[in-house]
Each structure stands twice: as structure tokens, then as C-alpha cells.
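C-alpha cells as discussed.
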């Protein structure tokens, strides 16, 4: 008879080593911070950023997807989640790694990004390079 708990039976989600620009902010704040993904799965994202955050910090994120060969519109993954792990780096000036568990996401196509009021925050303009405000 097996004595494993449910948690022991759960397999780790497959990670994809994708290096994409990611913009994130705490809900209800106007400033988007910038980072770069290190890997992504359907359950979370590991990103590098110069902006350390506390564990359990709630976040809204926007991951920029590049357009494909047949589709020039591009897309964005918009998601909500929380910081579940911090990985400080040993070298000074090296960005910290933040592991963020994703609890909700959706994919927004390029035509929606340019003309529709859709979005988690009600703002449709993608953030500029570096911290910015809405």
C-alpha cells in the first residue's frame, strides 16, 4: 500500500528556457518594472530583475511575445501571480531572480494591444523600456 501524499504525486511542470521581456507591477500601482524571463511553465515564471521584491508580493505581469513568420501582430501574455522564491546572485550588480507562481493568465493578440480597451488593468499601451507609469 502506498503512503505518498497528494503533494508527492504532483509532477513538476515542464520548464521552457525562454528569454522574453517581462514587465511587472504590484496591483493598483502605476509603475511598471522591467525584467527578463529565464524560464516559463504553465505554473510560473522565473525572471531576473534589478528590483527585489518580498515573498508573497502580488504581481501583474506582461510578457512580450515576438511575432511569428506568418503573423506580424505579436502578442502578450498577461498574468497575475505572487513571488514564491527569491534567488539572490553572488556577483554585485547581477539581477536577482524572482520565482513567480502564476494563478491566472490570458494571451492578448497584437490587434487587441493596439486598439481595444481589453486588459487586466484597463491600460492597453505596452510599457516602454525601463520603469514607467501609466
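Sequence:
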Amino acid at each position: 500500500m502506498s503512503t505518498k501524499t497528494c503533494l508527492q504525486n504532483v509532477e513538476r511542470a515542464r520548464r521552457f528556457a525562454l528569454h522574453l521581456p517581462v514587465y511587472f507591477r504590484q496591483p493598483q500601482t502605476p509603475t511598471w518594472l522591467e525584467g527578463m524571463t529565464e524560464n516559463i511553465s504553465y505554473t510560473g515564471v522565473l525572471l531576473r530583475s534589478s528590483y527585489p521584491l518580498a515573498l508573497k508580493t502580488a504581481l501583474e505581469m506582461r510578457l512580450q511575445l515576438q511575432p511569428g513568420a506568418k503573423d506580424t501582430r505579436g502578442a502578450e501574455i498577461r498574468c497575475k501571480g505572487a513571488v514564491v522564491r527569491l534567488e539572490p546572485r553572488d556577483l554585485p550588480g547581477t539581477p536577482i531572480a524572482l520565482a513567480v507562481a502564476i494563478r491566472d493568465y490570458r494571451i492578448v493578440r497584437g490587434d487587441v494591444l493596439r486598439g481595444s480597451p481589453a486588459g487586466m488593468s484597463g491600460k492597453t499601451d505596452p510599457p516602454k523600456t525601463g520603469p514607467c507609469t501609466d
